[in-house]
Amino acid sequence: MNFQIVQNKKLQIIGTILIIMLGLAAIVNGQQDQMPVAGSNNLLCAGFVQRAGVDTGRKIVGADLEKEKNIYAQGDYVYLSQGSGSGVKVGDMFSVIRPRGRVETRWTDKKNLGFYVQEVGSLEVVRVRNDVSIAMVKTSCDNILMGDLFQPMPQRTSPVFKQRPPLDLFSTPSGKSSGRIFMARDGHEMVGPEQIVYIDLGAEDNVRVGDYLTIFRPLGTGSILDDLPGESVSARDEGYQSNEYRGGKFSNQAARKQGDEARGKVVTSKKAKRDRPGNLRKVLGEMVILNVKERTATAVIVRTAGEIHTGDFVEVQ
Asked: What is the pTM of this model?
């Protein structure tokens, strides 16, 4: 009897869980058009590559616990180099940035893309003096260091997911602006969904926040492996004939000969590709633009159909 009661309770719990899951699924499906493409980490900590200079006079010059440690994170208090004399007020929000250096890459033909700026966190001013302010670290995407710069918090709004058809693995080129992934956040060379990448398309190419781009590479390129072995074998390689009859002159993988009477040279895979169109491509995924600078843009990958790495091509849909 007790066993039956336990079983009934288990069934009730399972039924309740299923109802909750179905309800959540319904909510998600009903609100899909309102879901942001990027969360706060990807939106405010994505970083960017720009050509315009930054104000190096606004920097972190001290910390409440600087005697105990030299890296700071959420909840720590830091001192800023500007105060009320520079217009800083209690409640002001700032973004912490760290210029990392000029971008040099072989993955683009564009010259002078700019320099990479890492976004490492955000600050809220809690106390103001004439020439210095005290701020609390509200968010930290990386360790915050003395000397890091701060600037007004950028006003960014994440694009929302659109109702999308299944990813078309064999889509033809759109003919719109195209470029390449020249770098990924944190130095990654292979990336996947929800990871941040930087592309060599910017305001001068008329790309905008919220644009969807197809990620692709020319068909037959981009593998991290060495070239495949030959596609055919000799007719009498060991293992392709019987001990008694010795087989014929054709192996199980005999290659095709050229000519209508098959008297020409062997047709190889490389030769077979020569007459095909030059725009065949392998679709790898899809990305959405989050931030646009002069010659570059920051994007988040939203769908993948294969490995994506720096050097892959992108095209506005």
From this structure: 0.80
